[in-house]
Amino acid sequence: MAHQQHQQHDQHHHHGLQGHRHGPAGPGSGTEIDWAEMAPHLESQAELFTPLYERALSWLGTEVTEPGLIVDVGSGPGVVSCLFAETFPGARVLAVDGSEPLLQRARARAERLGHGDRFGTVAGELPGVLDELDYPADLIWAGRSLHHLGDQRAALTAFAERLAPGGMLAIMEGGLPSRFLPRDLGFGRPGLEARLDAAQEEWFARMRADLSGAVGEVEDWPALLGGAGLKHARSRSFLLDLPAPASEPVRAYAVAQFERWRDASEEALAAEDRAALDRLLDPRDPASLHQRPDVFLLAAHTVHTAVKPG
Asked: Residue 204: how many CA atoms within 13 Å on its side-chain side?
């Protein structure tokens, strides 16, 4: 299981992948995600969302003082893992993921940024692979990775067991669906993104149901953290606001997202909406995401924290 996206699902629920890992990985309506194939998308997304992550990590820094070991659960290619290394210069950072190809990219990034001497990786299935930790963690971060585990309650309990007394578990789940376009595009029926939200919710429900050992849960994250034996649950949301005119990275990210949504949602959408998506994704069309001047990115992600009793 690699981290988080998704993506709308990555945005909404979506997707560490990182950073957001949630969302269909390719054509068709299947829910299997090839994380290694998604590596460039995961990296570009997490890099784009870096201002949001920096604010979230700064908040964590006011809650956790001088952690010795930080574990990024479902780290993916390590963009956020390296932000932890930068934010907490005295900490050792361990990136944990089910995809060795993504961890190779994480190690390369850490070396490139000068964090290699205090950066490690562990490959294996979560949450069991955490048994390989040599000592308890002071901070465990799961950024949009928890929703890729079938039994989220059991996973949170396993994460909590790997915390040192006084250590913190921080999960990024929920928030709001991202927005890229005005409600009225100038063609098609207004409100396209809201209808894409509904299609993505259906995809997410199928993805969850298809996971091994899937267990339904009310997504009351503070209550689930309390059920894992943790105390002092807190929640805070962080905004990414990149208004029009869009930079090239925002435009490229928007195109990638809408391509994924079209591939995964085609059967769920009316013909008029499919036609609108085709126009948005045609680089020759002045009204496309490639050319139109009103493309933006507005997103909100929520972080939930709780502490292991001392």
From this structure: 25
Closest CA to 153 of 179, 183, 127: 127
Separation between Cα atoms, residue 166 and residue 305, nearest integer Å: 12
Dist. CA 250–CA 45, nearest whole Å:
9
Please state, in angstroms and rounded to a whole number, the distance separating the CA atoms of residues 241 and 243. Answer: 6
- For 71, phi and psi rounded to 5 degrees? -115, 120
Structure tokens at 244: 């029009």
- Burial grade of 32 (CB within 10 A; 0-12, 13-18, 19 or more): exposed
The residue among 73, 205, 225, 65 whose CA lies nearest residue 156 is 225
- Which residue in the block uniquely carries the two structure tokens 């948005």? 280
pLDDT, tens digit, 9 for 90 and up, residues 119-133: 999 999 999 999 999
Q: Is the pTM of this model over 0.70?
A: yes
What tokens were used for 305?
Answer: 């924290």
DSSP label at residue 135: S
The residue length of the chain stands at 310
Per-residue model confidence as pLDDT tens digits over 148-186: 999 999 999 999 999 999 999 999 999 999 999 999 999
Show the DSSP H helices in the chain as ranges. Answer: 7-10, 39-48, 50-63, 79-87, 100-112, 152-161, 192-210, 221-227, 248-265, 271-280
Look up residue 136 and give its DSSP letter. Answer: -
Q: Which two tokens stand for residue 230?
A: 């943790």
pLDDT in tens, 62-82: 999 899 999 999 999 999 999
Cα distance between residue 14 and residue 5, in whole Å = 4
